[in-house]
Design brief:
alpha+beta, 4-stranded mixed β-sheet, 4-stranded antiparallel β-sheet, 10 strands
Length: 302
Amino acid sequence: MLYPNGFRCHHERMQTIVIHNATGSVYSLKDIMPQVNELSGAMNYTMTVQPYKNDFISVCPMCGKGVPQLYNVICVNTQVILQYLSELSANNNREWYHEHKKENKAAVEQFEQLVRELIDGIGTFDESVLHNIPKELTFKLVRDTRFSHDKSPYNPSFRAHISSKGKLPIPVGYYIMIKPAGGTFLGGGLFADMFSDATAMVRDYISAHPDEWNDIITDKEFNKYFTVKGTALKNVPAGYEKEHPQAEYLKFKSWYVEYFLTDEEVLDASAFLHKAVGLFKTMKPFNDYLNKALKDFKMSTR
């Protein structure tokens, strides 16, 4: 039986050593729990205790079960993230941005901590992402306004792409965007439609492996949360069968999935992280299929 927060027996909670992942401080769990509860209730911090190592190097004296010696205390304040982004959205100008560098720094730190937790969670079923450093996976707030009618200098959202090769669009991985007012979503797949070689590779692979594609996109759990989206042509492109069983997807130039979340869901950081990791696990076969199609893709160095 597993008890709440991953404990293996009800005696573990009070005699396990805890390492706080933000400060590196070491505590006894029985000493830290009141602080955890106080912060969770009073400051909108979500602090939960999860297994950090699977090495059983001590034994519970009351029941004899092995006890993991190190546990991780998750400390993410998603309210800081949403509040900063909401204020930036309402004051999308360079003057306000530069006057609120302190708030920016605090929000960025919380987002990078969130990404760290996601890396660790995804790593339980996809070890290829574990080497990543959060700040290397995030995208800048500054917008390129050269060819846009909207001259707002900033994109009021925090974004990150977690894959085996960092934030590059290929190989495809796990995408998160935190944006207030219901704009937050989790995504996966190939969002970029400007890589003609990548589009051709995926079309060829779907054409050659239609049954595997169908099994993935019609899976009951996958369909519960996701629908494959993408930019598409009106007709099946030349060189592919018009009557192919996956002809509709051969029209696509990109293939991706999205799952949107409310601000209320984001504010409960522990539940949000748990849901995000679960959804990313559900989309993994979809990502794996695309990455098999894209295994020979080479990103331009120009």
